[in-house]
Design goal:
417 residues, alpha/beta
Amino acid sequence: MELRRVVVTGLGALTPIGNTVEEYWNSLVNGVSGAAPITYFDTTHFKTKFACEVKNFKVEDFIDRKEARKMDRYAQYALVSTEEAVKDANFDFDRLDKDRVGVIWGSGIGGLETFQEEVMNFAAGSGVPKFNPFFIPKMIADIAGGHISIKYGFRGPNFTTVSACASSTNALIDAFNYIRLGHADVMVTGGSEAAVTIAGMGGFNAMHALSTRNDDPQTASRPMDKDREGFVLGEGAGALILEEYEHAKARGANIYCEIGGGGMSADAHHITAPHPEGLGARNVMLNCLRDAGLKPEDVDGVNMHGTSTPLGDIAESKAILEVFGNHAYTLNLNSTKSMTGHLLGAAGAIETIASILSIRHGIVPPTINHFTDDENIDPKLNFTFNKAQKRDMKVVMSNTFGFGGHNACVLVKKLEM
């Protein structure tokens, strides 16, 4: 069967550096860091006292207060980013076949704050199990997609992907495949996360995964820098409206780009550490190129996973050199996590949005906070350090890798009629 073409017709973002797509993009281009001292809880006894929180967000501006109390923050973020994306897509709901519109969402952890609060309240109590009746539906990782479909009446395929930090990229690839295989005409996809909590920060600190640069949070996320020492935890959401090309064209939709392909792989190496030679990262990019029917030489840039961890950045850089060969030196590479921090399961969504906007505007956002070259990373690679660069971007790949060795890569490209 002939696969159908899939395009992007709507975007929504709620991030540590902007609460709309426009704010997010402006901050990316200007190299704004979202890292700051944590405001959600007392960090006195924590090794890391900062994160990339969503700022100036009032849920009651978007969701009825009574309804919002039934949702964990990760689900609230999902609904708000989706609202922006749906408005951006500009559907005529009277003519939209909602049986052909689905939702595939991604979250690595789901309602961690809800789980934390309920268990802590029980532990502090008398032993009588007095739990909130909304405890389970607030906590489960699939509920964000449920809320989205309920709000808009979308009755197509609906589920959640969980692959740690690759979750929303896997969701996007699944949504892409459901449309091109003919199972839906429109898919809402993306991811959300709200793990800046006592349990989230404490757990990642116990793994020695987070930066502890408490004296200078804004420069703590340092992808590819010699002195990087861990990632900065972020939160938020990104939403994308994927649509079958002819369906979008028939209604005169604004088309951002085309989804060219998606790749997946496993490291099969370690529960948290990447394969030291970047084997899984290499395979996922090759699989993505193969799915898109493109050659390495066709690619203009890669939004790297680039978390600012000692091992991860080296492994991914090695993989890029292996996949692209000498063409790697002509690529614009970048890590927007240097600004947003690491949104875990939502990372793939907001980073794909950044890749799409780099094509639309002909600008590559920078990798900020680079001070010292790492002798283990090829200095001839262009990581777009510290300042955005103008470039006609036609094809961009976005990498996301998760604990457990889960790798996902999506390729976006300029629309060719």
